[in-house]
Recover the amino acids of this structure.
């Protein structure tokens, strides 16, 4: 196999069947991660450093510093030096001569701490690393214990296992940083949710509730601290082996299977043997063997080392003893593991709608047993945020690296239950973060396509989904050609905004060119993000407008309902009334649903709520746009009133890995009427809201604009001043209630005072 660079040779390691459990019809496999160029952590180093360079966190030529006494040091040395970085490794006296020689041969600076501190060698190394970070400006620290790119590196390993085996039942791995076992298990569970996960630890390690004994001889597993990447909620069973048992198991692995591994590989092998004896026939068990034995030639495989530490005098068990929680393990022990009950689970929101569902979602997170957390660059933009009780993490939400840094610094991985947003602008960012953290989410590429209406047009065209004729414009000079393609009148709009912002119906080419120029002159959107610099010129489809509320889960999309929409007259398209469900014949509704289902499949949507806008033309439904998130405009509230289905709650459920509950509890009808100004000026007063609220059938009246607010005739959703919501078992009564209540509300708009 030919590779262009040395880092391309990382991964794709052999999977071999061991001679364990054969007589009982049990299949046991070893994933030989020790066959990487140096060892298993080569994967981690490649993923972390490549991601850091992609995000701009690691500048070309900047120093790389890591704390490690083993394979992570070698992995960082391999990848860092291959990419042209100076590499500094902080280690301790336990480092073996072979690893030390390799690091120096690769051109690394090796810093050996002299004494343990408060938490053993680990804390001593971290203290020295902090000094180096201060002394070397621009240095990058991979932070293998806290960086989700560590477990994320093992998505590739999981893919290899699935490709080789298709299905297996138990995964066994040693636990040190938590990366390999948790990262592999999390990725496999996306396909095999019933996977049993067995962690292998050492006696004297604090990872799973045992007391810390820093003098343990084993390396490569165990820890005196609790790494942030360890997700104990994934682990079903834990085994602890003492130094004697682990070292002896490495010898047995070499003698019985001809695999020369370190004490970590030996410990995994010993546990594989026990599981093979207990498993039902037909069970497939996979163990991850992390490192080769050459690093242990003067320890594990040296009789003088054994004698110096009196290892043969350490009690040794031939089978694991079941230990209850709280009992100290001294010899090989095991336990069906339950993570501590006091782990606080957080549901992260990356920004939010500024009104409606945004603040409501934060409150609903508590119903799922989660602490709501809003990551935001500007908490002050959210009215009612304080009342939600959500934790607020302030960071630059328009920066992928800043979002990652904020999450990594604040949360242990097991404390994060899910991540989501109720804002159009942040769905691609959330998709990327979900992938980074191994959480339920959509493909980032699919979310980017949906957010970029120009890219979506191309995708739907390739898939044969009906849509308006269109042209993509990046310069006003291209508008004449675009209009010739689409015809007049045409719709001109930005490719990446929302809420009908800058959407204009144009009756001639000159108006279209002027609108395109206005759109292209805007370089940042309302959230401070750079705009795409792309304009869509589209055929105007003259027909009724609908939105289709879909929910995708477990490989299929289900229609929750169709909303009928009323929009203001041309040239602007601002939705001023929604009715749910839309009064459509069953055959037409089915046709609309099938069209949207095909569009979602083409776009690559895989999870959660979508809000797709459709025009019903004489030739059938045509897709206007896909919004890859929950509907805005209080449509989820209409769905709740009409059917009992709480769409917002379902969106949060799937974000934390729970199945949605989409079955309607009842059948009814609901509608919303938005309050709009009929002239430009300043809002002086809103009268009649109380009387409107007392109208039969009215569920809610909300005025969102305060007197003194500048207002204008509606040009986008941002110009709405409030709303009225009605519900009733009969659709006609909903319309009547909205009309009656709206007639009672008076918006007094005065002129703008002179400056």
């Amino acid at each position: 196999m030919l590779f262009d660079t040395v880092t391309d040779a990382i991964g794709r390691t052999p999977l071999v069947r061991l001679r364990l459990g054969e007589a009982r019809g049990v299949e046991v496999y070893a994933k030989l991660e020790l066959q990487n160029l140096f060892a298993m952590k080569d994967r981690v180093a490649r993923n972390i450093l490549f991601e850091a360079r992609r995000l701009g966190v690691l500048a070309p030529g900047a120093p790389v510093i890591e704390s490690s006494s083993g394979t992570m040091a070698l992995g960082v040395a391999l990848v860092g030096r291959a990419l042209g970085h100076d590499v500094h490794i902080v280690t301790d006296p336990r480092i073996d001569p072979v690893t030390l020689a390799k690091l120096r041969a690769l051109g690394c600076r090796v810093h050996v701490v002299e004494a343990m501190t408060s938490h053993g060698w680990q804390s001593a190394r971290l203290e020295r690393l902090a000094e180096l970070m201060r002394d070397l400006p621009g240095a990058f620290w991979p932070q293998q214990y806290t960086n989700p790119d560590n477990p994320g590196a093992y998505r590739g390993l999981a893919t290899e296992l699935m490709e080789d085996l298709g299905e297996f039942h138990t995964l066994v791995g040693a636990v040190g940083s938590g990366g390999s076992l948790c990262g592999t298990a999390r990725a496999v569970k996306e396909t095999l949710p019933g996977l049993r996960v067995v962690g292998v630890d050492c006696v004297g390690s604090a990872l799973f509730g045992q007391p810390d004994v820093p003098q343990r001889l084993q390396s490569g597993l165990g820890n005196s601290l609790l790494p942030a990447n360890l997700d104990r909620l994934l682990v079903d069973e834990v085994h602890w082996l003492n130094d004697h048992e682990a070292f002896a198991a490495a010898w047995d692995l070499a003698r019985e299977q001809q695999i020369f591994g370190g004490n970590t590989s030996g410990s995994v092998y010993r546990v594989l043997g026990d599981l093979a004896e207990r498993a039902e026939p037909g069970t497939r068990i996979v163990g991850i063997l992390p490192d080769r034995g050459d690093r242990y030639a003067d320890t594990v495989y040296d009789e003088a080392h054994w004698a110096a530490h009196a290892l043969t005098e350490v009690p040794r068990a031939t089978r694991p003893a079941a230990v209850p929680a709280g009992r100290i393990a001294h010899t090989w022990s095991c336990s069906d593991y339950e993570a501590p009950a006091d782990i606080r689970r957080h549901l992260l929101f990356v920004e939010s709608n500024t009104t409606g569902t945004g603040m409501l979602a934060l409150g609903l997170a508590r119903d799922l047993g989660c602490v709501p957390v809003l990551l935001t660059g500007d908490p002050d933009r959210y009215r009612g945020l304080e009342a939600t009780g959500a934790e607020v993490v302030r960071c630059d939400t328009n920066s992928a690296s800043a979002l990652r840094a904020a999450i990594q610094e604040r949360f242990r991985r097991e404390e994060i239950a899910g991540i989501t947003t109720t804002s159009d602008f942040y769905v691609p960012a959330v998709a990327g973060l979900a992938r980074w953290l191994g959480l339920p989410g959509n493909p980032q590429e699919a979310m980017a396509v949906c957010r970029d209406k120009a890219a979506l047009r191309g995708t739907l065209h390739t898939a044969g989904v009906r849509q308006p004729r269109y042209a993509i414009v990046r310069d006003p000079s291209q508008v004449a050609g675009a209009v010739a393609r689409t015809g007049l009148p045409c719709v001109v709009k930005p490719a990446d905004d929302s809420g009908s912002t800058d959407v204009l119906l144009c009756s001639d080419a000159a108006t279209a060119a002027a609108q395109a120029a206005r759109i292209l002159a805007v370089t940042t959107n309302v959230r401070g993000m750079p705009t795409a610099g792309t304009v869509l010129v589209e055929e105007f489809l003259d027909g009724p407008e609908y939105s289709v509320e879909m929910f995708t889960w477990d490989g299929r999309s289900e229609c929750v309902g169709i909303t009928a929409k009323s929009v203001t007259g041309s040239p602007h398209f601002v939705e001023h009334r929604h009715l749910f469900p839309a009064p459509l014949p069953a055959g037409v509704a089915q046709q609309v649903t099938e069209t949207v289902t095909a569009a979602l499949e083409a776009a690559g949507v895989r999870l959660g709520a979508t809000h797709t806008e459709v025009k019903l033309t004489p030739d059938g439904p045509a897709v206007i746009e896909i919004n890859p998130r929950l509907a805005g405009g209080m449509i989820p509230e209409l769905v709740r009133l009409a059917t009992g289905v709480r769409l917002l709650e379902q969106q949060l459920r799937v974000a934390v890995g729970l199945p949605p509950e989409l079955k309607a509890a009842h059948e009814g009808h609901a509608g919303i009427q938005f309050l709009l100004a009929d002239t430009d000026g300043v809002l002086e007063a809103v009268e009649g809201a109380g009387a409107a609220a007392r109208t039969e059938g009215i569920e809610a009246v909300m005025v969102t604009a305060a007197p003194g607010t500048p207002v204008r005739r509606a040009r986008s959703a941002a110009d709405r001043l409030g709303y009225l919501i009605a519900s009733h078992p009969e659709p006609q009564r909903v319309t009547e209630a909205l009309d009656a209540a709206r007639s009672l509300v008076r918006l007094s708009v005065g002129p703008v005072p002179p400056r």
Notes: The longest helix spans residues 586-603. The chain has a mean pLDDT of 95. The longest strand covers residues 556-567. DSSP finds 23 helices and 30 strands in the chain.
